[in-house]
User: Which sequence fits this backbone?
């Protein structure tokens, strides 16, 4: 338990001799302690709120960050202090817990990125990867690039008309259950043109990005997967398998990432979902997703949910060019750039489940306990150094 770790670290540290601070540095060290004490006092009002109302993950995250800064300021002034390091480690544990809860519940880009990460991990969990998997990874890549274009140094490139054409169509014509062709739209009228456009996009991305994609980013990991397999090989496989069952909305076993995210956004705007239900939509089979949608809304499938939602731009149309009969289509020339941006910037928040509320309240108790521990520890530091000063 975190509580026991803090208590044991504190008691063990009291038995140790506080590292000696020489006379020249004593005044500065005492000033550091004083500043740390004042910084703790600043968050006492937020701590008091925890006793008066249900714990709030956002407030707790703010307090945890503040506590972490206090301890880090002491560590930098006294790097040999084992207590400071133990306290810092304990704060880090529940800070990460709060961060994870917030990512999944606050909505907006944070939640959207957490969902992309979950889908990526699910896709690559089964090896070897299939053409269907590569198509779904391609959509995750495009969405990650949109969110993190500035961080990757690709903002200007992502806003070029050619790039917008590539990305708007990739999110509409490839992936599980997502195959369709767009007569009259050059580059997207047939399986051959679609494969060539995808190859052009990936090669242009690699040429533009160079080594700027962080290796641990989704985009960096996906590009490495594509390069290891061979981009031209992937494009050829997409063309060859374009008429396979995995691409048809009536014949696929899964939904593409774009269809999953669009469905869950609409679903969450209508009904509350638990974390488990969110994960069903993001990683479950098409049958599992359709069952959940049916249970929650009465619509028969995830696609019905999209098509029948108010002011929907989604439709299912006959698409003989896919060889699969029906195709999912977003009205217009690809999925409009502003629509895609709106999807992740306005992604709806999710309410905490009962289990998550219990976890947040438990963390709230730890935060309150740690606040008292920090004050006690700082007082010990001050008393020890004052005692040393009298004997210098």
Assistant:
């Amino acid at each position: 338990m975190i509580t026991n770790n803090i208590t044991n670290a504190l008691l063990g540290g009291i038995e140790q001799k506080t590292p000696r601070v020489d006379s020249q540095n004593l005044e500065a060290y005492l000033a550091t302690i004083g500043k740390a004490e004042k910084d703790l006092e600043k968050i006492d009002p937020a701590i008091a709120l925890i006793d008066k109302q249900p714990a709030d993950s956002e407030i707790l995250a703010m307090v945890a960050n503040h506590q972490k800064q206090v301890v880090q300021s002491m560590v930098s002034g006294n790097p040999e202090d084992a207590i400071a390091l133990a306290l810092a480690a304990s704060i880090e544990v529940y800070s990460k817990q709060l961060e994870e809860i917030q990512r999944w519940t606050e909505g907006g880009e944070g939640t959207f990125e957490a969902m992309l990460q979950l889908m990526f991990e699910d896709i690559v969990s089964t090896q070897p990867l299939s053409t269907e998997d590569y198509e779904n990874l391609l959509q995750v890549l495009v969405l990650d690039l949109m969110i993190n274009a500035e961080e990757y140094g690709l903002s200007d490139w992502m806003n070029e008309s050619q790039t917008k054409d590539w990305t708007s169509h990739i999110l509409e014509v490839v992936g599980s259950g997502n195959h369709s062709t767009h007569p009259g739209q050059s580059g997207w009228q047939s399986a051959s043109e679609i494969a060539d456009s995808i190859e052009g996009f990936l090669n242009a991305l690699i040429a533009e990005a160079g080594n700027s994609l962080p290796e641990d980013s989704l985009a960096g990991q996906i590009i490495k997967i594509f390069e290891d397999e061979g981009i031209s090989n992937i494009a050829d496989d997409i063309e060859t398998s374009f008429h396979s069952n995995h691409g048809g909305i009536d014949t696929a076993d899964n939904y593409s990432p774009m269809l999953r995210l669009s469905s869950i956004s609409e679903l969450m705007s209508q009904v509350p979902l638990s974390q488990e239900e969110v994960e069903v939509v993001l990683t479950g089979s098409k049958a599992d997703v359709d069952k959940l949608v049916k249970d929650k809304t009465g619509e028969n499938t995830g696609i019905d949910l999209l098509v029948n939602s108010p002011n929907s731009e989604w439709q299912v149309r006959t698409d003989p060019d896919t060889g699969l009969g029906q195709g999912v289509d977003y009205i217009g020339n690809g999925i409009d750039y502003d629509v895609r941006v709106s999807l992740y910037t306005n992604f709806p928040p999710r309410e905490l489940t009962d289990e998550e509320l219990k976890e947040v309240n438990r963390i709230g108790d730890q935060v309150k306990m740690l606040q008292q521990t920090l004050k006690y520890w700082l007082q010990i530091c001050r008393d020890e150094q004052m005692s040393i000063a009298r004997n210098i």
User: Anything to note?
Assistant: The longest strand covers residues 314-318. The longest helix spans residues 354-391.
